[in-house]
Write a structure and sequence with these properties.
The chain is about 45% helix and about 25% strand. By secondary structure, it is an alpha+beta fold. A four-stranded antiparallel sheet has the order 3-1-2-8. A four-stranded antiparallel sheet has the order 5-6-4-7, sandwiched between helices. The longest helix is centred in the first third of the chain and has 19 residues.
Length: about 250
């Protein structure tokens, strides 16, 4: 999973300088709103909300935005969002899995279908890509925020909490867990008082597709169109992230 880890790191670095920050905030606000509607505004009893607020801090989202999102979630007149997913293939048989939060189902499906059609992809049926992706908990820790982190002790603590893989890089540590152990790992991070930059459930590909640089750029244009849609929360793919591809992104 080391290639996937480096991909995530690059996306975070690009995001810090990205003019699309407002879109990132929009996605987090939706997540906070849905979390409050599902589990209430109490952080201690609502792990989904706790996670969403943690990720808002990592994105440097202003506190006022967070408070407004919580109020929106508790209000009776706020928008009601529906969670849904889309699955399909981009060009070169690249599998694409899309997670959405929307207040208008017709708009969302039309936008997703149009994106697939314009970029030579094929929108599939729900469940058609389940065999390609595993859902994993992914925790990213910035080392400079955790200067007392001892690698050996940390590794033992993580294994005890259910870590399946731990990847140490120059600036970051990425910890992977099963979906079932996500909550236990989140509690362990809190117990250790670690500053977690990002924590989320991701879809990690079990099989990958190798592309040359031109094919990769073409598929990435399609993925960027999907990510730019306000109804889209996350987009996953199964491109093999070799050194040639990662060099394009650095």
């Amino acid at each position: 999973m080391s290639g996937h880890s480096k991909w995530s790191t690059i996306k975070r670095k690009k995001g810090a300088l990205d003019a699309k920050r407002s879109k990132i905030f929009t996605k987090i606000i939706k997540e906070i709103t849905v979390a409050v509607r599902e589990g209430g505004p109490d952080l201690t009893g609502n792990p989904r909300l706790r996670l969403a607020i943690q990720n808002s801090k990592a994105a440097n989202m202003p506190k006022d935005n967070v408070e407004r999102a919580i109020k929106k979630g508790t209000g009776a007149d706020g928008a009601t969002y529906t969670e849904l997913t889309y699955e399909g293939y981009a060009t070169n048989a690249v599998a694409v899995f899309i997670e959405c939060l929307t207040d208008n189902l017709n708009r969302t499906v039309q936008n997703i279908r149009t994106a697939f059609n314009k970029h030579g992809g094929n929108l599939g049926t729900n469940g058609s890509l389940e065999f390609i992706f595993d859902r994993k908990g992914v925790f990213t820790i910035l080392l400079s925020d955790n200067l007392t982190l001892n690698e050996d002790d940390f590794t033992l603590e993580m294994i005890d909490a259910g870590a399946e893989d731990i990847i140490f890089e120059e600036d970051y540590v990425t910890v992977y867990t099963s979906l079932e152990d996500f909550g236990a790992m989140q509690k362990k991070m809190e117990e250790l008082k670690l500053e977690v930059e990002n924590a989320e459930v991701q879809r990690i590909p079990k099989t990958t597709v190798t592309l040359d640089t031109e094919a990769f750029k073409k598929v990435m244009k399609f993925i960027e169109v999907l990510e730019d849609d306000d109804d889209v929360q996350k987009v996953y793919h199964n491109i093999e992230l070799n050194e040639e591809i990662l060099a394009i992104l650095d």
